[in-house]
Design goal:
The chain has about 210 residues and is of the alpha+beta class. It has three domains: about 1-50, no CATH class; about 50-95, no CATH class; about 95-210. It has seven helices and ten strands. The chain has a three-stranded antiparallel β-sheet, covered by helices on one side. Helix 2 packs antiparallel against helix 6 (about 165-200) and helix 4 packs across helix 6. The chain is elongated, with a radius of gyration of 36 Å. The termini are far apart.
Length: about 210
C-alpha cells in the first residue's frame, strides 16, 4: 500500500506518512512530476497544482503566488486592488482622497524640480567656486561703497586681477547681486503661489491643471 507525507509519496511506509489509495498515489505522482505539491494535513491528502494564481495582502496589497487550487491564506484576497483602494473586510474600496494626496505630492515634486531648474540655469553661467564667493563679494562691495576706507581683501584682489576700477567693480557686483535676488525672489514667489494652489485644489483634475509654465 502506498503512503504519503507532505512533499513526498512512497510505496513503502514512511515516517509520519498516511495510507493512500493507488489512485491517490498515481494522481500524487503526476502532480509532483508536473511541479505541483502534495500536502498531508489531519490525515487528509491535498494535491496542489503547479499552476499558480496571484493573491493580494489586504493590509499592504503585496502580491504572492499560490497554487491555483490552493486555499487563499488568511489576510489575502484574489481580488485585484487599485492603487488607491482600501480593504474594508469584504472588498476593495476606492478612496478618492488618497488619489488626490498622491497626485498633489507628484505635482509638488514637478514644481520644485522646475523651480530648481530655473535657478540652476542662471547659476550655470558661473563656476561653483566663484558662486561660493558671492556673499562675500556683495558684503565687501556694499561696505566699500558705503565707506571707501573699509578693508576689502577679496574686492581688492578681484579688481587687480580684472584690471578694473574698484568702484566700478563694486557697482557691478551689487547690480548682479540685486538681479540674482530679484530672479530668485520671483521664482520663489511663483513656487510658493503654485504650492498654495496645489494645497487648495479639491480634485485631481484641478491639480493636474497646475503647471510651472
Amino acid at each position: 500500500m502506498p503512503y504519503a507525507v507532505t512533499g513526498s509519496i512512497s510505496r513503502t511506509p514512511i515516517q509520519g506518512g498516511v495510507k493512500i489509495t493507488e489512485e491517490q498515489y498515481i494522481s500524487s505522482l503526476e502532480t509532483l512530476t508536473s511541479g505541483g505539491d502534495v500536502v498531508v494535513k489531519d490525515g487528509r491528502i491535498t494535491l496542489l497544482s503547479a499552476d499558480t494564481k496571484t493573491v493580494y495582502s489586504t493590509s499592504h496589497k503585496s502580491p504572492i503566488d499560490i497554487p491555483k487550487n490552493g486555499d487563499i491564506p488568511e489576510g489575502y484576497t484574489d481580488k485585484v486592488p487599485g492603487e488607491f483602494d482600501r480593504w474594508d473586510g469584504i472588498g476593495w474600496q476606492y478612496e478618492p482622497e488618497r488619489e488626490l494626496e498622491s497626485v498633489k505630492s507628484v505635482k509638488m515634486r514637478h514644481i520644485n524640480a522646475a523651480y530648481e531648474a530655473e535657478l540652476a540655469s542662471i547659476r550655470s553661467e558661473y563656476p561653483e567656486s566663484e558662486q561660493m564667493t558671492w556673499d562675500k563679494q556683495e558684503r565687501e562691495a556694499r561696505a566699500f561703497l558705503a565707506d571707501s576706507a573699509t578693508a576689502t581683501p577679496l574686492l581688492d584682489a578681484m579688481a587687480t586681477g580684472r584690471g578694473m576700477d574698484k568702484t566700478e567693480l563694486a557697482t557691478r557686483i551689487i547690480a548682479k547681486a540685486d538681479a540674482w535676488m530679484q530672479a530668485s525672489g520671483l521664482a520663489t514667489g511663483k513656487r510658493q503661489a503654485l504650492e498654495d494652489q496645489v494645497k487648495a485644489a479639491e480634485t485631481v483634475e484641478a491639480v493636474e491643471a497646475i503647471s510651472w509654465e
